[in-house]
């Protein structure tokens, strides 16, 4: 029921009273962005004044911006890692935060090959929940009738560990899904999922995916939107359907649940609430899934779908063509901008084209500062500007100060200012700083890639062969996507060159040297496929340089790109490939033990 026009928001007429309240909150926060930021900083500094970290910089009782900026340094993870490690080891004194650190959120970014540990406090769950509560009121402005159906969202928990001091360390979404905020959330007709909590919370990824897909198929006519966190996750679900539809159809036809589902909570829920014979649906799914072409499969199976809710900004943009193929060009909605360190803001125009996505920073979430970034040289200024003082068209690196004890922390995201909503800036996510390759939640930088090359190259030494040049490419034409590494080799003894099997082993050795997030994606999440090495003809990289120079590059300043995505360059490299090799085994991965 639409609310009275007197309650309308500048964003548009809200769908209900609850939405009206949420939209008014957005307006209040963004109209008074600078005052809210000043209040947030004062709250953080006042409550944490007696922490070891702030006392170190002799801030005293000061809670104003000028003192804060003159005394507190800008830091990266490595600067605060010793304090984080002490907390992880069991030190409960107020080191970073006056409030107890409740757990660590593991970042997809890594330090020395291991996930970064981000401290958090219990009240941060309330802050994250607040941002979540704003998403549907905004979406309802653009897509009416979402209360008349359900969302098929593929949501998963990942592995968690405990630090030596006993604190949980887990991804931010796993923390949220396991919290009462999610598990005991009140009924909201605009936000009903087909997936039961029992399936979402199942740690076995196969059982979780199978159950969520089965529920989505059974409720196909009620589904109004499909989603996952990342675009890669939704494509993984489609691939799962391609592989397992005969078993899913069997369960639907017979009204039974496969014996592969052993989780007792799932079995009880499905037996009591979902499973019953439906031969008509089974026949329909058989006809659709048996077709050679899967173009438009999403709208064929879920005909009432209005949009896909997935992140397709940054590295995820590479999946847009494949999503369009499977969905028949459904709108792609990017709703929010968040990380393990902090939740930042939301997209006030969620149905815009992916290339136009901009996130409005909510000034109540943390204290935000920005380092001017030069997109040409890649250099970053040392001068910080406040949230309301950024300039449209310029790029910045994000710096945050959080309630949980991160002070002037460089997140590593590069953002471009596209405009303002009231006095709050709107940003387009450009990229993660220093990241070369990314398929899912993995982020591999140049030094990690170089380390992998060196690790694999050791296998070539006995054949008097070396890697003279290399580059890489994130291949998302396969599901799951995988890393492709192009090698040009120099062999001093052609009669004793490395065999196909040796080069396959080089693939695995590269994977063993990559960070733990990559290896978890390969081993536990199955969200990345085996690494591939494509050996190219001698002279290929010289051709690559010639091509770059022909397009205006300076011969004196030319450097081989360590990652390529420009189609003509990829095509040039692929046309020179002489052999192709893959990892034949999984790399080593176990849940990290926190030292």
Structure description:
The protein has 595 residues and is of the alpha+beta class. The chain folds into 3 domains: 17-122 and 338-432, no CATH class; 147-305, no CATH class; 436-582. Helices cover 36% and strands 22% of the residues. The strands form 5 sheets. It has an 8-stranded antiparallel sheet. A hairpin with a 2-residue loop joins strand 1 (103-111) and strand 2 (114-120). The longest helix is centred in the middle third of the chain and has 24 residues, at 231-254. Mean pLDDT is 91; it is low at 1-8. Keywords: Ligase. GO terms for molecular function: acid-amino acid ligase activity.
Q: Average pLDDT value? A: 91
Determine the strand fraction and express it as a percent band.
15-25%
- How does the overall form come out from the CA principal axes? globular
Binned, the helix content reads: 25-40%
**Poorly predicted segments:** 1-8
Radius of gyration: 25 Å
Given the helix and strand composition, which structural class is it?
Answer: alpha+beta
Count of helical stretches: 20
Cα separation of the termini: 55 Å
């Amino acid at each position: 029921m639409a609310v009275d026009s007197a309650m309308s928001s500048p964003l548009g007429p809200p769908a209900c009273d609850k939405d009206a309240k949420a939209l008014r909150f957005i307006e209040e926060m963004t109209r008074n962005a600078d005052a809210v930021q000043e209040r947030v900083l004062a709250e953080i500094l006042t409550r944490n004044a007696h922490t070891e970290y702030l006392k170190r910089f002799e801030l005293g009782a000061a809670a104003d911006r000028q003192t804060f900026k003159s005394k507190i340094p800008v830091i990266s993870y490595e600067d605060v890692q010793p304090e984080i490690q002490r907390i992880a080891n069991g030190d409960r004194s107020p080191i970073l935060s006056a409030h107890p650190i409740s757990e660590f959120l593991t970042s997809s970014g890594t330090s020395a090959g291991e996930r970064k540990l981000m401290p958090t406090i219990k009240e941060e769950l309330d802050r994250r929940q607040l941002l979540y509560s704003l998403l549907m009121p905004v979406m309802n402005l653009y897509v009416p009738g979402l209360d008349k159906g359900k969302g098929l969202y593929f949501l998963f928990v990942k592995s968690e560990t405990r630090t030596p001091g006993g604190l949980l360390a887990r991804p931010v979404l796993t923390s949220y899904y396991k919290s009462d905020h999610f598990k005991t959330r009140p009924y909201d007709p605009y936000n009903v999922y087909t997936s039961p909590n029992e399936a979402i919370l199942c740690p076995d990824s196969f059982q979780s995916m199978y159950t969520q897909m089965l529920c989505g198929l059974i409720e196909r006519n009620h589904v109004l939107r499909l989603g996952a966190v990342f675009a890669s996750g939704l494509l993984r679900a489609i691939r799962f359907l391609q592989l397992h539809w005969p078993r899913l159809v069997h369960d639907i036809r017979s009204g039974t649940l496969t014996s592969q589902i052993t989780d007792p909570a799932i079995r009880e829920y499905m037996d009591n609430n979902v499973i019953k014979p439906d031969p008509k649906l089974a026949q329909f799914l058989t006809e659709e899934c048996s077709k050679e072409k899967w173009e438009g499969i999403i709208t064929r199976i879920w005909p009432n779908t209005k949009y896909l809710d997935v992140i397709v900004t940054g590295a995820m943009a590479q999946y847009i063509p494949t999503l369009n193929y499977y969905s028949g060009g459904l709108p792609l909605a990017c709703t929010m901008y968040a990380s393990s360190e902090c939740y930042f803001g939301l997209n006030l125009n969620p149905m815009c084209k992916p290339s136009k996505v901009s996130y409005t920073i909510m000034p109540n979430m943390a204290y935000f500062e920005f380092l001017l970034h030069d997109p040409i040289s890649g250099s970053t200024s040392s001068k910080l500007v406040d949230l309301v003082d950024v300039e449209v068209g310029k790029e910045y690196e994000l710096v945050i100060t959080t309630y949980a004890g991160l002070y002037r922390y460089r997140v590593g995201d590069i953002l471009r200012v596209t405009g303002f909503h009231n006095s709050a800036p709107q940003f387009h996510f450009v990229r993660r700083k220093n990241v070369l390759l990314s398929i899912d939640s993995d982020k591999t930088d140049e030094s990690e890639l170089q380390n992998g090359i060196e690790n694999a190259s050791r296998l070539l030494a006995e054949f008097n062969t070396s890697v003279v040049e290399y580059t890489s490419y994130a291949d998302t034409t396969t599901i799951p996507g995988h890393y492709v590494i192009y090698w040009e080799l120099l062999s001093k003894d052609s009669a004793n060159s490395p065999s196909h099997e040796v080069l396959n082993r080089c693939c695995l050795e590269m994977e063993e040297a990559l960070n733990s997030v990559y290896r978890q994606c390969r081993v536990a999440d199955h969200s990345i496929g085996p690494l591939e090495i494509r050996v190219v003809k001698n002279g290929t990289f010289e051709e690559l340089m010639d091509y770059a120079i022909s397009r205006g590059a300076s011969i004196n300043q030319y450097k081989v790109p360590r990652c390529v995505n420009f189609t003509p360059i990829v095509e040039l490299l692929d046309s020179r490939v002489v052999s192709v090799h893959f990892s034949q085994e999984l790399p080593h991965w176990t849940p990290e033990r926190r030292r």
